[in-house]
Amino acid sequence: IWFKNCKNCGIMYLKEKGKYKDTYGYDFKMSYPTDMSDISFMMPTKRGKEKYITELPVAKYISFGIYRVSITCDDENFNKIFMINDKDYYTSYSLKFALKMQKKLNIKIKLIIDSKPNAYIYERKDLDYVIADIKMIGDRTRYSLINSKKAVYDLPFRLLPFITSFSRVKMGEVINKFNVYDDVLRIQTDSITFLKEFNEVV
Question: Phi/psi zone of residue 138: left (φ > 0), alpha (ψ -120 to 50 degrees), beta?
Fold first, then answer.
């Protein structure tokens, strides 16, 4: 349930429906494979543990995993860099990014406290791996991962929420870094369309 209830897709945003002239589209080449090879990307190769926490630590002390958190924001620019999840399940990648942007966009972040566990946490030692092989089987990709003890094959279930949220944060970081909020027309997973040219972004 922790994996399925996360937002397992890329950022999807459209400013307004209609026809536009002189727009400029860019995308991240081989986005997911590139992200998986990023030194800062981590993915679990074992099960985590359900936990009940009473408060959220500051961003740098957020443990790797999935959290039950309510995240809301009235600023339209937030929709260009973040995907709200009505089920309130967020990976640590998404949560840390929301905390980073909290003051700038007046984001409301609240840990859900009820009778159920509100965090699913992994031990750091179970997050080390390298990609040993990537193969296309039909229209699906099979990843062979190797950690310090054994090889792990076909991990779309554990991989999905973490790779999608990592990639969404990457897109959001680009938009925020270059402050191009006003000129974003459309975002679809790993591609972004601007109303004017931005060579310095690519």
Answer: left
Compute φ and ψ for 115, nearest 5 degrees: -85, -5
Q: What are the beta bridge partners of residue 137? A: 140
DSSP summary character for residue 103: H
Classify residue 87 as exposed, middle or buried by CB count within 10 Å of its CB (0-12, 13-18, 19+). Answer: exposed
**Alpha-carbon span 69 to 65, nearest angstrom:** 12
Contact 24, 193 (CB under 8 A): yes
3-state secondary structure of 198: coil
In this structure, the number of other CB atoms found within 10 A of the CB of residue 189 comes to 17
How confident is the prediction along the chain (202 residues), in pLDDT tens digits per residue?
899 999 988 889 999 888 888 899 888 887 877 787 777 888 787 789 999 999 999 999 999 999 999 999 999 999 999 999 999 999 999 999 999 999 999 999 999 999 999 999 998 877 766 555 555 555 555 555 555 455 544 444 577 899 899 999 999 999 999 999 999 999 988 899 999 888 765 5
